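Hi Y.,

Following your request, here is the sequence exactly as I used it, all 709 residues.
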Amino acid sequence: MTRRSALAGIAAVTAVAAAGCAGGGSSQSQPARRPVRAVDPSSTDAYTTAAKPLLLQVMAHPDDDLYFMNPDAQQLVRAGVPVVSVYLTAGEAVGKNWVPGMPKPTLDRAAYSSARHQGLRQAYATMLGVDTFTPWRTSVLDLPGGVRAETNVLIHGRRKARLIFLNIAMASPDDMRLPALWSAPGTVMQTLAATGSPCQTISSYDHETLVDVLAGIMDTYRPTVLHTMDPDPEFQAHDAVHPKDNDYGSCSDHRDHTPTALFTWKAMSQWVADATRRDRRAPRFTTLSFRGYYNQRWPYNLPPAVVERKLRLVDAYGGDPHWECGNAAGCGDYGQGHGRALRNRKAWIRSTHYRYPGAQLAVRTDRSGRLEAYGVLGTQAARWRETAPGSGRWSPPQNLGGGPLAPALAVVTDAAGRTVLLGLRFSLLEGQGGGNAREIVVLEQRTPDGEWGRWTSLGTPERRPMRGRRVGTPAAVATPDGRVHLFARTAAKGVATRVREANGRWGPWRDLGGNGIQDGLTTTVDRQQRVHVFAAGHDTVHHWTQDAPGEPVYFQPLTGLPQPSHQPGVALAPDGALTVVYRAPAAVRPVAYRFTPPAGADARRAAIDAAALRSTPLRHFDGYGPIGAGAVAVRGGKDTVVLVGRAEDGTVQAQRGISGAAAPRRAPAGWLPVGTSALATGLDQQVCVVGMGAGADPWVWRPHPTSDV
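Below is the corresponding structure, written out as tokens. Let me know if you'd prefer a different format.
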């Protein structure tokens, strides 16, 4: 080893050890870095026209998509959306394709990488609906910076999959690894040539080369849906109850997952900036980021039938040494086959969690009765408006800027009728020892349905950027007294708030306490005009409220509610009762729980005993994932609860009422949602379901007001 290599290795190890899983910077002297090309928050260029749907996924290792991005990816592919899956590393670290219970083979990293590639071909062939061992077309792909990669293509009718293997060695010379490539200036990594690969070129990657390669792939394939991993995994205490297992540092994820996501987000921002400058139009795509080893730490949120569909693909990937697949180096990642993913106590297969939960589109109704949808399109905030009330047709998206933004926005209408839009921004995303920070930002209308002001930073409730990166997506609610209440999950897994007073001034951040909740907050205002906040905890549904309007929000436990698996839906009845709807872990059928918050002198800071409350199983609303809830007027002057969510096959369903006779209705064929769909009501109290389509454009479904929906 040369002295220069040794010094570079020491610098990299020092930087990464200091940063842990945070991917922070180094205080050491740094070589010159190319200026970051990123989205300008003030940019509001028009978007490109709608394009044919295409899904692009970026993973660290072969199988990350199968464990963490399904069932979402599978549902899009089965619906005919082409997929391009990019794998950064060769996945060769273990180096032994071992079948548990059998003697361990000799170390052969190139063969193990090749076997994992074959496993993916088997899994995607299964996903496309063809024979597991269908031959693929393999070739070499020339990429920016002079690097080369293997690419495999398989087409079956309308279904198409392309796999791109960058094959960066997980442990490059001098023990360089992906966290160092992100954080440590001057780091260089090399590729590994997999056995039998058509790409036997050894390529070198520095930080900027990898960003350019990913941005180049995005520009070549022009995705309308982009799947990433978790750029900011949550902190995890490791003890006897929560062993460290595969976690890296103090976070609940693999050390390669985090930099992979950071590189992807940085490449997205660069692509949008460069393409907008070149084309004078912003790329049009929607994004979902997926949690990784987080799945092990929280209640399972997928029912058995959905898990079985994931397992079928993982088993095809795992393969078997006795299979005749045509790949001499191996027929899959043998340790993952034959149902082992179900028996593994880490149980990653039993859940799928979004890093930025909430509806993909935030929806409101303007004063004329037209729907407005707000979402993140091409990392920037966008607004769609119905061309006329009830038309179901949308005007072209208006670029509101503010990027690069995480893919979940909160929108409220204040007492004066002005729209307030809140998002989570990647304010710094530099790497190589540079800044890495997030902030909550707000955009407000100056007048009702009028012009917008400028994006303003509200910071985060955390003082240090490393902790600020763990802050959740904003949730908000407007109250009749003119205030806007902003809430966000903290790095400590509690809730913090910031309030905009009626005069438009934002107060300071205030920690509301609580702990052990998942991100994804549900807010509402009750009949007494008090704010309520709900979140899914490890143990039960957590709850925050006020004693009276204008009073501080505080933590008020709900005792007796069962353990939830996802963000609860909440609906307000005219008698002041609140209906909380969610599924228990791994359950297919949700349950509705009804309680009336105490009022007046009875509103004390004490726990509400929910154990004796009436619970109503929703006998026909089988499915998975978060449930949106609301209330609409019905004949006779009473309101009824309306629900929206995913059925077991991933399609959208809506239901009016929670009685035993109530049954859901499915959205029309072809309206497959990306992420979570939103529930809204028009001025005529008509139920509206608004979702993001695979072409990065919204759709609206208005179920006919029959007895069931």
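DSSP finds eleven helices and 38 strands in the chain.

Thanks again,
Q.
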